[in-house]
Amino acid sequence: MPLVQTRGAASAQGFGEFAQASAVPNYIEDVFSCFLYTGTGATQTITNNIDLSTKGGLTWIKGRSGATGHRLTDTARGVTKSLASNSTATEATESTGLTAFSTTGFTIGADADYNTSAATYVSWTFRKQPKFFDIVTYTGNGSTKTISHSLGSVPGCIIVKDTSDTFSWVVYHRSNGNDKVMYLDGTQAVSTDANVWNSYTPTATDFQVGGSSFSNSNGDTYVAYIFAHNAGGFGLTGTDNVISCGSYTGGGGVDTITLGYEPQWILTKGSSAPGQPWIITDNMRGMSYTNNAELVPNTSAAESDPGSYIRPTATGFTVEPGFYGTGATVIYIAIRRGPMKVPTVGTSVFASIARTGTGSATTVSGVGFTPDMLIDTNRTKALTDQNYLTDRLRGLVKSQTDSTDAENNWNATSFLGFTMDGMNVGADGGGYINGVTPYINWFFKRAPSFFDEVCYTATGAGTQIYTHNLGVTPEMMIVKCRSNNGTYWLVYQNSLGLFGGTYPNYLSLSDPDPKFNGASSVFGTVPTSTQFTVGASGDVGASGRTYVNYLFATCAGVSKVGSYTGTATTKQIDCGFTAGARFVLIKRTDSTGDWYVWDTARGIIAGNDPYLLLNSTAAEVTSTDYVDTYSAGFELSSTAPAAINASGGTFIFLAIA
């Protein structure tokens, strides 16, 4: 099982633990976007919050649902000027293609390759930024030519296309060497051609081309897209890597590639044998533990899903056997997942939407951000409904917080995937997510200091250490076995204390029991800002079983993980908020007590406040007034029962502003 190491730590540095090194730090969410949209057949503005008009960059668009050409348009060549990665064709002028660049994205017309009505598309946007990406145009001279660039670091990959003649796209990749070439529009193996790159290794200021027509025909015009490799330049200290150009050789088992960060976009190519395509996967379309949505730059084919071959990890990705084959050398470009910025308002990372299902396919929108996790509950529980949890990293599967069952895709027509602002749901005959009944949807976004997620396959060792990217020490962790029935949701919370002064005590999310004494087989140690530890218990770490861990922390003004002692009287819980909590989860820890949930979508008001129980299939209760508004957090009313405010009782909570 080969291990490929590239430079760069998993980067709590960019998340606010260290002093700021420059006045304007750079973050991946400011320079790269993977944006999904549905065509309208009319002028459409795509707002991905990437400044193209003043900073410059490249937009690469591909139809997902149809066999359309790849369309690459950049600010160096100009709006309406497109190239197709699946074609040797010269630059085309498309007046109804990409029609404008802006400070927040771009505008498209009605061209079928960009905007067919009801068709689905993806756009990958690369903004020019030192140590990430640059664009250079030049005119060939037919002999050796040195070309300056502004990448500010040694390129890891350079892609060149003759825009005035029908030559193939040529690709330099640092893993191949300076006398080797690959072709973006084809499936050829890497080959030797000293004339393409003049056998010259690029530097932090320039690269060279020789006399090859592919890269330097006299009088022809060219564009070069230049990608950095582990150059730092991002995060608060300017040392975080956001793009890596590497390679590995398939070992016949699971291959582990270490980047130092979790990727969101990966371009791969089997380079050692002919007939192997270029493949792009990303986490917006589906780069998960259960599916991979693939697009192929060298063909116009629609998106396909061959299965989950590439799986992101907290520090890179793994590749399942059979992706390109045992012994195949594979080159890649990987881009870091965002956001890197710590959120400052709760509405940027959490939303609750109360709605009535339609029983037919529809889109739920208005979340206000691109969600990574959903907890969905049928409020009446009139059918065989439970509390369903699904997330982007695991893919199109659901778990039940009130059940010990393994994950599954019950009623595959219910949840159809996340959108940029919500989710798509189908004709849900089972009533799981979209029956004709009332629902509450809680949407969460992964963000430093707020919420993170890690999937792992356990080894069964007595002490197992796994990396996370929360950026701070988790104060609450919720772990569930994905692969096996009869396993409990186990909860670590920092206020539960240690058993014997060593092992963290814990709770079960799937039942109302009080806290359990800690053990080495469960949470072996207190987590740190980069790692968490589990033991060999079947609920968290049995050999070969798969698990998911959801990690939460207190984020100033956004979330609060805390505890309190009950008074049986009115009690205010100060979370450091300014406009009150929009979500409150409470559990009693010293005695039996359910997992109560309130939210402002259903009502946290001075009167009755509806609540649901995450560990129960019971219907929503609407006739009680247990939680009231309080600007700094939330207030427990004097009528709250012992499960919420018993005098002398101990309680934990998660509140989100």
Quick gist of this model?
With 657 residues, the chain is an all-beta fold. It contains 4 helices and 50 strands. The protein has a 6-stranded antiparallel β-sheet. Strands 11-18-13-14-15-16 form a 6-stranded antiparallel β-sheet.
What report would you give on this structure?
There is one protein chain. By secondary structure, the protein is mostly beta strands. The protein folds into 6 domains: 1-22 and 241-339, no CATH class; 32-127, no CATH class; 133-228, no CATH class; 346-444, no CATH class; 451-552, no CATH class; 559-656, no CATH class. The chain is 2% helix and 37% strand. It has 4 helices and 50 strands. The strands form 13 sheets. The chain has a 6-stranded antiparallel β-sheet. A 6-stranded antiparallel β-sheet has the order 11-18-13-14-15-16. It has a 5-stranded antiparallel β-sheet with strand order 26-33-28-29-30, with no helix packed on it. The two termini are 45 Å apart. Mean pLDDT is 94; it is low at 1-22.
